Amino acid sequence: MTSIVRNQWYVAAYGREIGRDLFSRTICGESILFWRTEAGAVTAMSDRCVHRRFPLAEKPSHLVGDTVVCGYHGFTYGADGVCVAVPGQARVPRTARLRSYPVVEQDSFVWVFIGEPALAESVPIPRAPWLSQEGWTTVAGREPLAARASLLVDNLMDLSHETYLHGGYIGTPEVAETPITTEVDDEAGVVRVSRRMADAACPPFYANSTGLTGRITRWQDIEYQPPCLYTLHSRIAPVGVLPNDDGTDPDAFHVEVVYAITPETEHSTHDFWAVARDFALDDQGVSDFLAESNRTVVLQDVAALNVLEQVIAGEPDGYQELSINIDTGGLAARRMLDRLATGR
Ligand code: FES
Ligand SMILES: [Fe+2]
């Protein structure tokens, strides 16, 4: 059975990746062609010519105005994927059209709907407003992961691994020591996991970016909206400093760590990561540091999950994992993913 949840929105790219060059990416096993019209709108259609399947992102395929011309025999398609010209005859076969995908540009991401296009409007697109909002500065990237998407979901839902896998970057002993609370909101389709550390060591990731020295109050509030969007609301403040009663929080540092978990195939994943902060907005040194540190952390996860994928691929079905309290969020996420997959 496929593990990929269909009839859902997935992040396919950052908006900045798509321009007037033909761009192809495999999303949920489907090869999709992206380009921008002359008016700047992002298009998404199958990257396989209907004639002999030549990839339209492959040279010498090219754009002419708002049409894409296949580089093999010249079938020409409009921005909606409908073929408008074929070589050697005036009549264009009625069935000559590329599959086109609902596509929306939002919060710096290009979202594409995988599944039955008619359902797209009824499925909400999760939001990550910080990534393109005034008052925040963002660094972002994407790493290829040679492992199934569910392994990345497990990884992100249980941050106790920071202490072991990411020691020296974002992990300190308190992360693994502090219990979590988990909340499942079936109606909104959100799993929340919170870990609030009242008095913790400040890891280099935050010490070097905020300038805080000494111990901190560190909150990690996760929201996962299956299947694709994960946000870690991270709050860092000197020990004892809490938000005001009216919800304002001027003496804390806020970081929104966003992941878009997009299956490339059944066994590989696009790991989109972004780190938005509400401090040191114009400090390029802080941006460079956070980008480099987060990328290092992501690559530590990628290395571990690539190993796990190999382990799982090489063993018989039915292996019985052992779960403990720290896994509550990950198990809730799995249940929600299963429900989305089976439509129940
Ligand atoms: S394969 Fe595209 S025109 Fe022939
Ligand atoms: Fe990690």
Describe this structure in words.
The chain folds into 2 domains: 8-122, Rieske Iron-sulfur Protein (3-layer Sandwich), CATH 2.102.10; 129-342, Naphthalene 1,2-dioxygenase Alpha Subunit, Chain A, domain 1, CATH 3.90.380.10. The protein contains 6 helices and 17 strands. It has helices at 149-157, 162-165, 173-177, 204-210, 284-313, 328-342; strands at residues 8-14, 23-27, 30-36, 42-46, 62-64, 67-69, 76-78, 83-85, 103-106, 109-114, 137-145, 181-185, 190-200, 216-225, 229-238, 253-265, 268-277. The strands form 4 sheets. It has a 7-stranded antiparallel β-sheet with strand order 11-17-16-15-14-13-12. A 4-stranded antiparallel β-sheet has the order 5-6-7-8, with no helix packed on it. The radius of gyration is 22 Å and the shape is globular. The structure holds FE2/S2 (inorganic) cluster and fe (ii) ion (FE2). FE2/S2 (inorganic) cluster (FES) binds at residues 49, 51-52, 54, 70, 72-75.
CATH superfamily of the largest domain: Naphthalene 1,2-dioxygenase Alpha Subunit, Chain A, domain 1
End-to-end separation: 16 Å
| Run of helices and strands | EEEEEEEEEEEHHHEEHEEEEHH
Count of domain modules = 2
Helix content: 10-25%
Which class of secondary structure composition applies to the elements? Answer: alpha+beta
Mean pLDDT: 96
Top-tier CATH class of the largest domain: Alpha Beta
What's the Cα radius of gyration? 22 Å
In percent terms, what proportion of residues is strand?
A: 25-35%
Oligomer: single chain
| Tally of alpha and pi helices | 6
Identify the bound ligands: FE2/S2 (inorganic) cluster, fe (ii) ion
Number of strands: 17
For the report, how would you describe the main beta sheet?
7 strands, antiparallel
Q: Flag low-confidence runs.
A: none
